[in-house]
């Protein structure tokens, strides 16, 4: 998986619990990471007249026709408020998906809808702290999508990064016992964004149960797992935290990636009955609900495996093509164990210099690794989301450079 990442200390903390005798300081939000790419975008435009944007993991391929038809035909469901927990049809479709895709028996009563997975990730620490004010710490992967850390910050909690090993997997042995005692939850992300690593989720679940720390597993890329044998004949590679039982764990899934529905904002979470029940109730009081037409479309999407197989083929092909472009520039671009990102070590560890070089030479926009944690600063992330015509142009530019 390329160069070994630097290990981040679990003392890497942000936020904190203000002393009762003080007025809490106002939160100071960092710049939104992708807004920092504007200068690089201008360099690419000036040099090539157009940008090949592989910086953000936004799906660019069309949703399945059956899903679009369901969205159009569901106009009647827009008239009334949808259930916050999700319609019976949606939760049953998710239950069926768990059974057919992952070989898991998960009751619809232990599944609930969310407005895409990102809002769930960002809101979770606040909701958990309302349930247990004695805890104030969110454990999350040291190299990961920024929303895990930001969710803790927005809730006034401590965000403590869990180091990763050389395969980009959680090293739970490195977590300080003092942080375990204060932990509201542990986040896992498998396949991982940005580095594509695969945690041993049965081990992660065991750690959470043995330490009485709820584990939340972000599994939105599960259907784009490349390494590992299928669970049973006919299934794709991929695993869920729920495979080792539902107690103390919650899996979070999204239709944004697997069905190219990022703009429709549909996700779901499933697992421990007490956790799902509590989160469903508090989200109901907060008015969080997936629009009715979106849930109707999601039912069609969850029953559609053919389009997901097509998307798998697209992403695997694109990973190989873009990796070959990087190799032609003398850059190592190992293929990931899962997800659709290349995680490329920067020469001399200078990710911003590499990002600027790619913008200048190829008109290519990528994300410097520091967006995903200080332990990631020596890499760039490349999201192979653009269509084949854009990749044809990327190859042409690389050849003519």
From TrEMBL:
One Pfam family it belongs to: Aminotran_1_2
InterPro entries: Aminotransferase_I/II_large, LL-DAP_aminotransferase, PyrdxlP-dep_Trfase, PyrdxlP-dep_Trfase_major, PyrdxlP-dep_Trfase_small
Cofactor section: pyridoxal 5'-phosphate
Domain Aminotransferase class I/classII large, first and last residues per copy: 51-394
Region described as Disordered: 1-25
Gene Ontology terms for molecular function: pyridoxal phosphate binding; transaminase activity
Biased composition annotated in UniProt, kind: Polar residues: 7-23
Organism this protein belongs to: freshwater metagenome
Keywords assigned: Aminotransferase, Transferase
Protein name: Unannotated protein
